[in-house]
Amino acid sequence: MLKKYFILGLLFFTLGILPSAQSTSANATTQSAGCTYPAQIFDFINWKETLPVGSLGNPTEIKQPALATYSYDPYFVVNSGCDGVQFRAPVNGVTTSGSSYSRSELREMTNNGTTNASWATDSGVHTMFIDEAITAVPITKRHIVVGQVHNSSDDVIVIRLEYPKLFVDINGTTGPTLDANYTLGKRFTVKFVASNGQINIYYNGSENPVYTLNKIGSGNYFKAGAYTQSNCSKELSGNCVSANYGEVIIYNVWIAHSSPPSLSLPLNSLANNNTLIAHSNNFSDGYDPSKLWDGCYEGTLYDSTTCTTGGRNISSFWLEFDLGKLYTISQARLYGDAEGTWVSKSWKMSYKKNVTDNWKTVFSSENALFNKWSTRSLNIIARHIRIEVLGNKKYSPGRTQARELEIYGIETKNIQAQSDSKEILGSVLESVSDFTEGWLKNNLFILSLIILLILLVIYIIWALWLRKK
Q1: With 0-12 CB in 10 A as exposed, 13-18 as middle and 19+ as buried, what is 23?
Q2: Do 381 and 287 fall within a single domain?
Q3: In sequence order, which residues have a C-beta less than 8 Å from that of residue 398 and are 6 or more positions away?
Q4: The Cα angle at residue 274 between residues 407 and 286, in degrees rounded to 5
Q5: Between 425 and 50, whose confidence is greater?
Q6: Three-class DSSP category at 333
Q7: Domain coverage including residue 399
Q8: 141, 391, 412, 413 — which has fewest CB within 10 A?
């Protein structure tokens, strides 16, 4: 009886430490959870969503914090590819009191989505970027608006499709054509930049605006989504149904606001013209490395020159700095860019104390956040720093761009050998820990078999000992 329970115990113990199919399935569920809500695709913190449902003249509006975990199929959901958000507005949808057309549309907010945004075109710089594709228009009146600057009373300037013509519309006046023969599903980018009493429109990453509207005014805000420009009275009999709609997929949308030209230059950043000693030779004209520390985050300055750096048709660029002395580096941060398809994807940092040393990697494949700071806290001693920014390889051979780079540290004096020893010991221990963790993760099944064999040997020895007794 004792032998029977011992063998059963061995089997249960072994099964308990072997990897299970159930845990793999749970991981797959966790990964797919990133496609549950639109707010998991891009940042909705300063938006509210208006839906084509609710009561007449009073459509449903979703604000923060509810918007962070909200979706409404099929009007406001993650698309099937899990890389965009679907906005759909049917011709028979509920409308606002000031319009006869329904919408599934974002409205700009401030203060973490609690207050309606309102800004003036002659104070500061106000930017909205949209990466989108129009995927459906109504059957009869095939019109839709997919991005706009609005003021307290009416739209100021919008991007409008009157299929197949995609164009800029200035409060009912036809502006320049963006695409005379737009096909549904075709992805494009548009950027609105308001400053100095003007609103500039950029299309598909154009360096120069495709249209400039001279407009001084306050009470403005941005909108993005599907604003269907048809209703039941405009459609033929039988087409007043929810299956007749306008729809757009938005892959990325962001808003940025900055103060007037007094640029906020970084204080005490070690990345500057004096410490830069080398860089890759693939920067485009007007996108030189010094733009990484000019204090500008918006992409263009007031004189319409760019304040970003990077290159066309490149997969990455790099820079090397000589700080002149040893510094204890405490922080490095990069402000990534998402100008159309010309984006930063990730970045890496290396360092060394002496020019003859080999480069040591501090971090690699760090996510370069789109139009946000990607910040790393550090504790390294270095004189030489190397930064590499990697772009979007989807667009062969790649496109790479970034806006700002800052490196912070304090000059290190009287470094004792003990400090170096501690650093070396720490690195060795960290390497051993990483190796052990990685080995266990990759060889858990083998380890389980070894333990089982050891236990079987112990059991055989014990059984032989009992027999001799």
Answers
A1: exposed
A2: yes
A3: 313, 314, 315, 316, 390, 391, 392
A4: 85
A5: 50
A6: strand
A7: 274-409
A8: 413
3-state secondary structure of 184: coil
Residues 280 and 179 in one domain: no
Beta strands in 306-358 (DSSP E): 309-311, 316-336, 338-339, 342-352
* Predicted confidence (pLDDT) at residue 335 exceeds the cutoff of 70: yes
Give the model's pLDDT for residue 21: 33
CA distance 130 to 253: 4
At 132-166, the pLDDT tens digits run 999 999 999 999 999 999 999 999 999 999 999 99
- Among candidates 235, 244, 248, 229, which has minimal Cα distance to 90? 244
Residue 368 identity? A
Q: Tens digits of per-residue pLDDT, 278-287? A: 999 998 888 8
Residue 107: give its domain's CATH number. 2.60.120.200
Among 185, 169, 407, CA closest to 274: 407
Say which residues have a Cβ less than 8 Å from residue 177's Cβ, sequence separation at least 6.
165, 166, 167
Note the pLDDT tens digit of each residue in 229-264. 999 999 998 999 999 999 999 999 989 887 554 444
Instruction: Report how far apart, in Å, the C-alpha atoms of 104 and of each of 62, 93, 244, 318, 352 are.
Output: 11, 10, 14, 42, 53
CA of 249: how far to CAs of 128, 132, 373, 405, 422, in Å? 16, 6, 26, 32, 53
How is 366-424 classified by DSSP, letter by letter?
A: EE--TTSEEEEEEEEEEEEEEEEEEEBTTSTT-BEEEEEEEEEEEE--S--HHHHHHHH
CB neighbours of residue 295 within 10 Å: 12
| C-alpha–C-alpha distance, residues 182 and 294, integer Å | 39
- Cα–Cα distance between 100 and 141 in angstroms, integer? 14
Question: Domain boundary at 376, 409, 442, which?
Answer: 409
pTM over 0.90: no
Average pLDDT over the chain, rounded to an integer: 83
Q: Where are the alpha helices (DSSP H) in 228-332?
A: none
Q: Is 99 helix (H, G, I), strand (E, B) or coil?
A: coil
Same domain, 249 and 280: no
* Residue closest to 260 by CA, chosen among 289, 210, 216, 298: 298
How many degrees, rounded to 5, is the angle at CA 429 between CA 423 and CA 432?
Answer: 140
How many residues does this entry show for the chain?
A: 469
446 within some domain: no
100 shares a domain with 246? yes
CA distance 40 to 67: 11
pLDDT computed for residue 206 by the predictor: 84
**Max CA-CA distance within the chain?**
104
Residue 282, classed as helix, strand or coil, is coil
Residue given tokens 């549950």 in the structure block: 36
